[in-house]
Amino acid sequence: MISKIVNVKELINRIAPLRRSGKQVVFTNGCFDIMHAGHVRYLVAARSEGEILVVGINSDKSVKLIKEKNRPIMPQDQRAEVLAGLWCVDYVVFFDEPDPLRLIQTIKPDTLVKGEDWAEDKIIGADFVKADGGKVVRVAVVPDISTSMIIEKIIKMYS
């Protein structure tokens, strides 16, 4: 079986023929440190926006740049494996930068998806995707579920 976890060059080579056949490429991104129902619902909603869902995942290096100390909890290879195991995810690709702008500019998705907790003018890559003829979709987030909340609950349980 062909791995869903790919580098950028492999990703471009795999999605090019799919695009030529008319398939719409959807991109979203995140850390996905401790997977939960909110992540799954979000990814299913993202996948519904097209035929190919590419998930950009913050590498361990990237997570350390943008999150609090001791993150990520799960190493990048394990986070990627969990994402790749979901039916709705077609490809997983890492990025080392604090944000996915360069990756978005390389992939040129037809649709960029983020949670509705992000204002559209704050979504990294939104201007690029729209200028390239694509669209930006904000999907509902599940209230009261977040990785940070799960971590806080665990800390309270054991302190």
TrEMBL record:
This enzyme's EC code(s): 2.7.7.70
Gene3D superfamilies: HUPs
Domain Cytidyltransferase-like: 27-152
Leading EC class: transferase
Membrane-crossing residue ranges in chain numbering: none
Superkingdom, natural source: Bacteria
UniProtKB keywords: ATP-binding, Carbohydrate metabolism, Nucleotide-binding, Nucleotidyltransferase, Transferase
SUPFAM superfamilies (UniProt xref): Nucleotidylyl transferase
Catalytic activity: D-glycero-beta-D-manno-heptose 1-phosphate + ATP + H(+) = ADP-D-glycero-beta-D-manno-heptose + diphosphate
GO MF annotation terms: ATP binding; nucleotidyltransferase activity; phosphotransferase activity, alcohol group as acceptor
Biological processes, Gene Ontology terms: carbohydrate metabolic process
Protein known as: D-glycero-beta-D-manno-heptose 1-phosphate adenylyltransferase
